Amino acid sequence: ENWGAIFTFENTLLVDPAITSDATRQRIFGVAAHEMAHQWFGDLVTMAWWSELWLNEGFASWMATKATDALHPEWEAGLSRVDTREQAMSLDSVASTHPIVQDIQTVEQSNQAFDAIAYQKGEAVITMLENYVGSDVWRRGVRDYMATYKYGNTVSDNLWEKIESAAGKPIKAIARDFTDQPGIPLIRVVAADCAGGTTNVELQQGEFSRDRKDKQPLSWRVPVVAGTVGGSEQRVTVEGGSARFALQGCGPVLINKGQAGYYRTLYTPAMLDRLAKAYPGLDTIDQMGLLADNWALGLAGYQSPAGALDFVSAVPANANPQLWSQVAGMLAALHEMYSADKAHQALVARYASARLLPVLNRLGWSPKAGEKQTDALLRAALIGTLGRIGEPGVVAEAGRRFAASATDPAQLSGPLRTTILGVAARNIDAAGWERLREQARAEKSALAREQLYTFLGSAKDEALARRALDLALTDEPGLTNSSRIIAAVASAHPELAFDFALANREKVEERVDVASRTRFLSELAAGSAQPATIAKLEDYAARYLTPQSRRPADEAIAAIRARIETRQRLGDVSRWLETHVK
Predict the structure, then answer these.
(1) Closest C-alpha among 223, 236, 237 to residue 127
(2) Is 35 noted as a catalytic residue in this protein?
(3) In sequence order, what E strands does 34-183 have?
(4) Are 79 and 292 within 8 A, CB to CB?
(5) How far apart, in whole angstroms, are the C-alpha atoms of residue 11 and residue 27?
(6) Model-level pTM?
(7) How confident is the model at residue 328 (pLDDT cuts 50, 70, 90)?
C-alpha cells in the first residue's frame, strides 16, 4: 500500500447534497474506511507476496464494516454480511474460481487478483472465524499479530498461529480449508427429528456449485451455528463430512443462525415449509440469509427455485428496509430472467408491483422528517426496481420529473436524483435522450457531468444504446467517462456492448486503465445469456489473451453458461406465478 497516502476518485470522495444519493454517501464512507484500514492491514503489516493479497483486502473490507457499524449504527452495516457472502459466492460457485491464497507469477495475474474472492470472500471467512473464536479472542490475536510483525511481511499462517494461541483451541486447519482451496461447502440437513422436547439433527457436507454439481466435493471443517426457532443454539464443527447433535426444543431448525458462516444450507422440503411459516418472526439477518440461500440453491438446481418466492410472500409489511431491498433486487433479477418470455415476465412484474408498491406508497417519494436512513435507501431501491420492471406509475413519475427539470432543476435535486434519472434514462425516447445529452454538455460539475454521460448508456432502446456507444468513442464525454458509458450499455445490452468493444478494441482500450483492460472487455459480455457470446469470448481470449491473463474471460464464460442453465430451470417458477398471481 502507500504509507500515509490514500488516493481516490472524486466520485468516492465528494458529497454534494444536491446530487449525492444516500447509497453513494454510504459507499463513500465505506471506501474511505477501507482505505484507512490499509494503514494497518497493508502498511504496518504487509503481505509477503501477491498470493496473500487477501491479508490486505479482506481485512480492510472487514475493518471497514466494523468501523461503519461503530460510527453509524443506524446504517445497520452488520446486515451487509449476507450481501458480502452472496457477492463472493457468485464467483466462487463456478469452475473458474480460485482459492483465497492463490499462485501469482505475473503482473497480469496480480492485477486480476483484486476480485470478489480477495475482498468479499476474504471478509466473509474472517467474519466466520471471528464468530468461531469470539470477538474478544479474535481482537487479542490480531493485536498480537500486528505487534509481532509490525513493519514486516507475513503469510496467512502467521495470522492463524496468533489467533490459535489467543483462542487456546485449533483454528489453523479450519482456516486453511477455507483459504487454501476454492469453492463453497454445502451443508445438507439430512434429519431434524424431535422427541421428548429434543431435536436430533444430522448434517452432511457436500459442495455447492452452479456448473459442476457432479464433481467430487472437496472437504472442509465447517463451523456451524444451529438452533431451533424459539429454542436453544449450539455451535458444532462439521468434520469428516458429517455431524450429529441435539438441540433443545421442537421448533423449526435453523442452520447458520446469525449468518456468519460461509456455506450454503440445503433443507428438506418439509423443513422449508416449517421455516416459511416461522419466517416473519425470525431475526432480520436470518430472514435475509434464508432468502439468499434458497434463491441461489433453486437457481442452481438443488431444489425448486419457486420455494424462494414463498419466503418473499411471507415477508411482513413492516419488515426491515434492508430485507425489502433484498426482495426488490431478487424480483428485478427474476424479471430479467424472463426477458425471452414476455407472458411470464408480465406476471413477474405484476407480482413485484403487488409486493413492492404498497411499501413505496407508505414511504412516499419525498423524504420524511426524522426518517431512518435505511428507509431512504429503501425508497431509492423500490423506485429503481419498479422503474426497471416498467411499473407504469413509477416510470411516468420519473419521466415527468426529468422533463420538468429542464425548467425547474429542483425536480431532480437531492438524494433521489440519480435514482430518478436512472429510471428515466432506461425508459427514455430519442427526444429525451438528446435532452439528457444537452444537459451533460452544459453541466459544470465534473461529478454531475460524469453521471449524466453514464446515464446516456442506460437506455433499453437498442437504437439509443448504439448512439451511446458511438458517442463513447468521441472526445465529447472525456476519456474517463467513455468506459462508463460502454459499461452502462452492457447492463441492458451485453452482446451489443461486447461486439462494439471488440470491433473497436484499440480505441476502447485507450480509454481503460492498463491494469483493467482484459477484465473490462470480458465483463461487458458476462451478463449475456446467449451461447453465441461464449464462442466470441473464446475467440477473443485465443486472439488477445495469454494463459495468465484469460481468467476474466473464463469467469464471463462460466457466468453465461450458468445463466443459460438457470433459465432452463424456471418451469416451477412459471407454474408458481400462474397459480399465485392474479
Answers:
(1) 223
(2) yes
(3) 45-47, 152-154
(4) no
(5) 10
(6) 0.94
(7) very high
Q: Contact, 93 vs 209, CB < 8 A?
A: yes
Q: Provide the Cα torsion 126, 127, 131, 134; round to 10°.
A: 60
Question: Which three cell numbers mark 353?
Answer: 408491483
Cα–Cα distance measured from residue 61 to residue 41, given in angstroms and rounded to the nearest whole number: 10
What's the Cα-to-Cα distance from 128 to each of 62, 135, 178, 250, 416, rounded to whole Å? 11, 11, 10, 27, 35
Residue 555 has a pLDDT of 94
C-alpha cell at 520: 473490462
Instruction: Give the Cβ contact number of residue 402 at 10 Å.
Output: 23
- Whether 425 contacts 392, CB under 8 Å: no
Beta strands 264-266 and 184-195, pairing class: parallel
Q: pLDDT tens, 114-139?
A: 999 999 999 999 999 999 999 999 99
Q: What is the spatial distance between Cα 29 and Cα 333, in angstroms, rounded to a whole number? A: 27
Q: Is residue 437 within a helix (H) or strand (E), and if so which, with residue range?
A: helix 430-442
Backbone torsion region of residue 390, taken as left when φ is above 0, otherwise alpha when ψ lies between -120 and 50, otherwise beta: left
Distance CA 507, CA 169 (A): 57
Q: Tell me how far apart the alpha carbons of residues 516 and 347 are, in angstroms, rounded to a whole number.
A: 39
The residue ranking higher by pLDDT, 128 or 211, is: 128
Q: Which of the 8 DSSP states describes residue 121?
A: I
Nearest to 126 by CA among 99, 159, 97, 149: 159
H/E stretch holding 293: helix 284-299
Q: Which of 62, 55, 26 is nearest to 135 (CA)?
A: 62
Q: Which residue reads 436430533 in cell numbers? A: 200
Which tens digits make up the pLDDT trace of 366-417?
A: 988 889 999 999 999 999 999 999 999 999 999 999 999 988 888 888 899 9
The H-or-E segment that residue 395 falls in is helix 392-404
Polymer length of the chain: 582
